[in-house]
Amino acid sequence: MSINPSSAFKPIEHTSINEAVYRTIRDRLMCGEYRAGEVLGIQELADALAVSTMPVREALRRLATHGAIEPMKSRSLRVPLITPERLEDIRRVRVLIEGAATEWATPRLSVAQIRLLRKLADEIEGTLQSPRAASEGLQRNQVFHFTIYRAAGSPVSMATIESLWLQSGPYLRAARELMHTEASRPLNEPHAQIVDAIERGDAVAARAALERDICWAFDHLQPSVARIESA
After folding, report:
1. What per-residue confidence (pLDDT) applies to 217?
2. Residue 6 — φ and ψ, nearest 5°?
3. What are the residue boundaries of the structural domains of the chain, listed by start?
4. How far apart, in whole angstroms, are the C-alpha atoms of residue 79 and residue 38?
5. Residue 127: how many CA atoms within 13 Å on its side-chain side?
6. What angle do CA 63, 67, 68 make, to 5 degrees?
7. Is the separation of the CB atoms in 9 and 39 below 8 Å?
8. 50, 126, 205, 223 — which has fewest CB within 10 A?
9. Residue 3: what pLDDT?
């Protein structure tokens, strides 16, 4: 029986480009590269990524379903403004979901993964010494947290966490900038405390340290919301 070549192979280039564009913009949002209220121009993004506007439109459409960006009357899209109510809502859900994922992950993390977490925790602390290293610190922070969450073995919670991080992106950079000031920096670097608890196999303590890490940023950003919105 002959096989029609056109039915034997499915085109993948278009899908691959769409996914690559989506992941690039998604990761930039998660790492706080776009500030609250920043308008995302479709043509500008397409030019920066050296692609046509079609995959950019598709990526932004997907991101809008997560609440990471919102449409404007001018047909542009922007990163949502940060409000006290939005911050508090994201905070509550992040503490609940990410805390649970950390507790589930603690007994499942391998020695190699724990070693990686320790390395990342040390590097994150090192970036606090230089304000220019904010972007580097945010990228390592994302890898640190998602290494833990993936180990929980819960695809459902991972989908929720990714959506939460997409919505949290605008505050992450502001929180990171606060950590570069001696007065605002936590006395004990929370990432190291998380790893300490995981190494001991203490899932409850790991969850508590993770929750402190999340709450620190929100606690320090609440008084500054007005300033962040106008930035």
Report:
1. 77
2. -70, -25
3. 10-78, 84-230
4. 5
5. 20
6. 55
7. no
8. 50
9. 42
d(CA 140, CA 133): 11
Measured between alpha carbons, how far apart are the two ends of the chain, in Å?
A: 66
How does pLDDT run across 175-210, given as a tens digit for each residue? 666 655 545 555 567 899 999 999 999 999 999 999
Q: Given its phi and psi angles, is residue 188 left (phi above 0), alpha (psi -120 to 50 degrees) or beta?
A: beta
Q: Residue 9 burial by CB count (10 A; 0-12/13-18/19+): exposed, middle or buried?
A: exposed
CA atoms within 13 A on the CB side of 151: 23
Position 46: which residue type? A
Q: Cβ–Cβ contacts within 10 Å for residue 64, how many?
A: 13
Residues contacting residue 36 through CB under 8 Å, at least 6 positions apart: 79, 80, 81, 82, 170, 171, 228, 229, 231
CATH T-level assignment (fold) for domain 10-78: Arc Repressor Mutant, subunit A (1.10.10)
84-230 and 10-78 share a CATH fold: no
Amino acid at site 138: L
**Which pLDDT does position 171 carry in this prediction?**
77
Three-point CA angle 42, 173, 100, nearest 5°: 105
Spatial distance between the Cα atoms of 171 and 217, rounded to a whole number of angstroms: 8
> In whole angstroms, what is the distance from residue 179 CA to residue 188 CA?
12
Nearest to 28 by CA among 69, 58, 74, 71: 69
